[in-house]
Design goal:
This protein is an alpha+beta fold. The chain is 25% helix and 21% strand. The protein starts with 25 loop residues before the first strand and ends in a 5-residue tail after the last helix.
Length: 387
Amino acid sequence: MSGMRTPGPAPRTGRRNALTDVAGIRVGHAGRAGDGWLTGVTAVLAPEDGMVAAVDVRGGGPGTRETDALDPRNLVARIDAVVLTGGSAFGLDAAAGAAAWLEERGRGFRVGAGPAQVVPVVPAAALFDLGRGGRWKARPGAELGREAVEEAARGGEGGPVDQGCAGAGTGAVAGGMKGGIGTASVVLPSGATVAALVAVNASGSLLDPATGALYGAWTAVGDEFRARGLRAPVPDAAVHARAGERLAAAREESRRRQADEVRQLNTTLAVVATDAVLTRAQAQKLAGTAHDGLARAIRPVHLLTDGDTVFALSTGRLPLTGGDEDGTPDRTGWRSHTEVAAVNEILAAGADVLSRAVVHAALTAGTTDTPGGLFPSYLDLYDTSAG
């Protein structure tokens, strides 16, 4: 029948099921926990020739740096790194440390003939974790930014990415439950890889209040979530009831420990990337559609007390299509229906992979108990590993 579609091959993850499955990208974390600290920085390092980048901000309280440079109408075509940081607006200082490291290596937008005459382009975004370790002024600075980008450089291409309470996810919290770093990838039938990394720190919740099921649990590729300890997508009703009581008690304890009333601000930060060639405008579209992945896994999302920000990256290692076009754009600006279909496939995958990354963050974060609060993990609340 003309309306029927033949099912394609089952989706598969990349080798690491991580952002580093996108050829050319490296990831590094730096964090501080203890002695009043609970915060950190994550750096996403570009290959030496840079990467195409775009950004889409949907939250009502963003803290960002150099995001205007990513507008497709503006001059700089490629960037050198992206920094995700805790510390709210104060933490944006971390990007200066990453930029200094890049400048020392002659990497950046060239503004003169000398090898050192460069200006590294390092967009950054911050999430709110102030005071969660107990000390209000324990926040990232340039030194943690440098440490994170150095860690990324040491890791090499295709390396593992730490998840949970790492980097920008060190002090992250989602709906009173411990948040953190999560990452995931998928290899498309075309051979292109699409991957995401997220620092989950949301006003909204990751779980359905009626059942305790993680909103994004249905998005799994294979048994990836089971391997992280999620034995059943929907917990037993009695387990859910006990978990709800424990989570409410933890929220109350966190409020008690905060002697000065602190407005609960948050922000989830994400990077979605592909090794397929994308224009800056196409990357802009990817950043926007990837927000759908956040909306599927976090509810509510994009509130005034969030600064939810998604960066989209392309390292351009693979052609967008198989090269069957004649290279002449039609009146829409596209070379063929094949190119449109290829971009659509990447856009859809970007949203899906970001939902999966949010679930990985929930499943890898550990319960954190500090003078600034008690933040239980999902697996500790629900003890799903015992099912």
